[in-house]
Design brief:
By secondary structure, the chain is mainly α. It is about 80% helix and about 5% strand. The chain is built from 25 helices and four strands. Strand 1 and strand 2 form a beta hairpin.
Length: about 550
C-alpha cells in the first residue's frame, strides 16, 4: 500500500479512538442512579456498547499497570533495602482477592465523584488494575535482575546515565517478556471481569454496563444463549486487541532479542506497518520521541558531599535500622488486624479459617504442579518456533481470558448430575485462568533463548532428555519461576470465584478460604473479610518465602545469561 493509504487507515483509527473516548466521557458524567434505571439487558444488540466500555476500562487499567510496573518493580530491583519490603509486599498484594480490595476501597472511589457513574468507573478500573499489575511487576522485576552484565557494562562504558541505561538497555531487554505478561494480564482481567463490573458489598450493589455484567446477568437468568453471545463478544474484542495492540508489540519487540543474528522468521504485523508508515501517527509521536531523546543527554547532578554522606552511619547500623523499621511496621499491622478481628471473633473462628486456608493451599499445590508438568514442555516447544508462537498466542490468550463464570453451567450440572464432591471437582476452576501464566512466561523464555546457544547444542548433538536437562529447562527456569509465582498467587485470588459456583438458583460451595471471603463480602461482614484476607496473605507469603523465593534466587544465580 502507498503511504497515503496508510495515512487514511491511521486517520480512521485515530478518529475512532477519539469518538469512542468522547462517548465514554459523556456516559460516565451521568448520575449514578441511571445504573439502576437502566439495568444490563441481555439483548445482543447492546453487546457492542458493552464490549467497548469493557475494553476501555481494561486499556486504562493497563496504562496504570505499566506506570506501576516501571516504578515499583524498578525500585524493588535497584534498591536492595527497598526490595526487602517491596517484594514481600507484592506477594501480599497479589494474594489479596479482588473482593478484598473492593471492600475497603469502594467508598473511597465513589467519594471521588459523588453521585456520578465516574466514581463507580474508578472502582471498576482499580479492580481490573489489581488483576493486571502484580503479574507485570513480577515479570519486569525478574528481567531487571537478569540483565546480562556485559550490556550494563557497555552502557557505562559509553557514558550513559542511569535514566538512559534504563530506557535504552534494561527496558528493551525486559520488553519481550513484559509484552507476553501484558497479554496474560489482560486475560487475567477478563477472568475476573464479572467481579469487576458487577459487585455487591453489604447493602451496596453496582452493575456497570459491560461484558462482565452481561455474563453475570446471563448466569443469573440461566440463559445459555446469552452466554454464547458473551463468548462471541469476548472473542471479537480479544482479536481486536491482538491485531491492533499485542501482535504489533510482539513484532516490534523482536528487535530486542539477544541474538548474534536475526531470528529465523521475522514477526509481522499489518498494524505495526501502519503505525510506522503513517505520517499522522509519526507526527503524533514525534514530540514524545524528541522529549525522550533529549532526556537521555541530561547529566545527573554531581553530589559533592557523596563521600562525607556515606560515613554518617556504618553499613551494619544502617541495615539494622532498616530491619528494625520493617519489624516494627509488621508488628503494628498484625496488632491492628488482631485488635479489629478479636473484637468480634474468637479463637475458634481463627482456627476454622486456618483450616480452610490449608484446604485451599492443597488445591493450589496440586493444580500448579499439574499445570507445570503440562505447560512447561509445551511452552518451550512453541517458544522455539516463531510460526507456532503466532498461532498459539491468540488462542492461548482467548483460553486464558475465558471467565470461570462461563463454565458454571457445566460445572454445576455435572456435580449435581453425578453427585460429585464439590471440594474436589470445583478445584480445576481455580487454575482455569492462572495456568496460562506458566505457559506465557515459558514461551517468552524460550523465545529469548540466544541463537548461538541453540546452534551450539545442535553442533554438539545434544538431543533428547540431555537437551531438556542442559539447555531447554535451564533457559526458561527464571521465566518459569516468575510465571509459577504469579500463577500460584492468582490461584488463591481465583478461589473466590471457584469455590462458590452459582447457576440460576443453584449454588455450590467448596470448603476453602475463597468461599469464606466471598460469603463474608456478600454479607458485608468486615471482621470476617479482614480475617480471611489476612489468612490468605499469610499463606501466600509463607509459601513464597519458604519455596518460591529460594527457587527464584537459585534460578537467577545459576541460569542468568552472562
Amino acid at each position: 500500500m502507498l503511504p497515503r493509504s496508510w495515512d487514511l487507515l491511521a486517520g480512521i483509527f485515530v478518529l475512532g479512538v477519539i469518538i469512542f473516548c468522547a462517548e465514554a466521557s459523556r456516559e460516565v458524567s451521568q448520575p449514578l442512579s441511571n445504573l439502576a434505571h437502566n439495568p444490563v439487558s441481555l439483548d445482543p444488540a447492546n453487546l457492542p456498547n458493552y464490549a467497548f466500555r469493557t475494553a476501555l476500562r481494561m486499556l486504562v487499567a493497563l496504562a496504570f499497570s505499566l506506570i506501576f510496573t516501571f516504578t515499583y518493580a524498578t525500585w524493588a530491583a535497584k534498591s536492595k533495602r527497598a526490595g526487602m519490603l517491596l517484594v514481600p509486599l507484592l506477594d501480599i498484594l497479589q494474594s489479596i482477592p479482588i473482593l478484598g480490595f473492593l471492600s475497603v476501597t469502594l467508598v473511597f472511589f465513589l467519594s471521588l465523584a459523588p453521585g456520578r457513574i465516574l466514581g463507580a468507573e474508578f472502582a471498576a478500573i482499580f479492580l481490573i488494575f489489581t488483576s493486571q499489575a502484580w503479574n507485570m511487576a513480577f515479570s519486569f522485576y525478574q528481567s531487571l535482575r537478569t540483565v546480562p552484565v556485559e550490556l550494563d557494562e557497555a552502557g557505562r562504558t559509553f557514558g550513559m546515565s542511569g535514566w538512559s541505561r534504563f530506557w535504552q538497555i534494561e527496558v528493551p531487554f525486559g520488553m519481550p517478556q513484559l509484552i507476553w505478561n501484558m497479554m496474560m494480564s489482560m486475560s487475567g482481567a477478563w477472568f475476573m471481569l464479572v467481579a469487576s463490573e458487577a459487585f455487591t458489598v453489604g447493602n451496596t450493589s453496582i452493575t456497570l454496563p459491560g461484558i462482565g455484567s452481561y455474563i453475570a446477568a446471563a448466569v443469573q437468568a440461566k440463559s445459555l444463549t446469552a452466554i454464547f453471545w458473551a463468548i462471541g463478544a469476548m472473542l471479537v474484542v480479544i482479536v481486536i486487541f491482538d491485531q491492533l495492540l499485542f501482535r504489533p508489540l510482539v513484532a516490534w519487540a523482536d528487535r530486542f532479542r539477544i541474538d548474534a543474528e536475526p531470528g529465523d522468521e521475522e514477526a509481522e504485523s499489518w498494524a505495526l506497518k501502519m503505525y510506522r508508515r503513517s505520517r499522522l501517527i509519526d507526527a503524533i509521536g514525534t514530540p514524545f520521541d524528541l522529549l525522550m531523546r533529549r532526556s537521555y543527554k541530561i547529566a545527573p547532578p554531581q553530589r559533592k558531599m557523596q563521600i562525607a554522606s556515606k560515613s554518617i552511619l556504618p553499613p551494619w547500623l544502617a541495615v539494622g535500622i532498616w530491619y528494625a523499621i520493617l519489624v516494627v511496621f509488621g508488628a503494628y499491622v498484625v496488632w491492628r488486624v488482631t485488635t479489629f478481628v478479636g473484637s468480634a471473633l474468637g479463637v475458634s473462628d481463627v482456627v476454622g479459617v486456618f483450616l480452610r486456608g490449608l484446604a485451599t493451599l492443597t488445591r493450589v499445590i496440586v493444580l500448579i504442579a499439574l499445570a507445570s508438568l503440562v505447560w512447561v514442555p509445551v511452552g518451550i516447544y512453541v517458544g522455539l518456533r516463531p510460526h507456532l508462537t503466532r498461532v498459539v498466542q491468540p488462542i492461548a490468550q482467548f483460553l486464558a481470558a475465558f471467565p470461570a463464570n462461563l463454565v458454571f453451567p457445566v460445572a454445576v450440572s455435572l456435580v449435581l448430575l453425578w453427585n460429585l464432591n464439590p471440594d474436589i471437582w470445583l478445584s480445576p476452576l481455580m487454575v482455569l485462568g492462572t495456568q496460562w501464566y506458566i505457559l506465557f512466561n515459558v514461551i517468552a523464555g524460550a523465545s529469548a533463548l540466544p541463537r548461538e546457544m541453540r546452534d551450539a547444542a545442535a553442533n554438539f548433538q545434544v538431543k533428547g532428555w540431555l537437551w531438556w536437562k542442559k539447555v531447554g529447562i535451564p533457559a526458561v527456569m527464571p521465566y518459569y519461576v516468575t510465571g509459577a509465582i504469579t500463577a500460584s498467587g492468582g490461584s488463591w485470588n481465583a478461589a473466590i470465584v471457584a469455590e462458590v459456583v452459582s447457576w440460576g438458583d443453584k449454588t455450590l460451595h467448596a470448603y476453602g478460604l475463597g468461599a469464606y471471603i466471598a460469603d463474608a463480602t456478600v454479607a458485608g461482614d468486615f471482621h470476617r473479610i479482614v480475617l480471611g484476607i489476612f489468612m490468605m496473605s499469610f499463606f501466600v507469603v509463607v509459601v513464597n518465602r519458604l519455596f518460591w523465593r529460594p527457587l527464584y534466587w537459585y534460578a537467577e544465580r545459576k541460569f542468568k545469561m552472562t
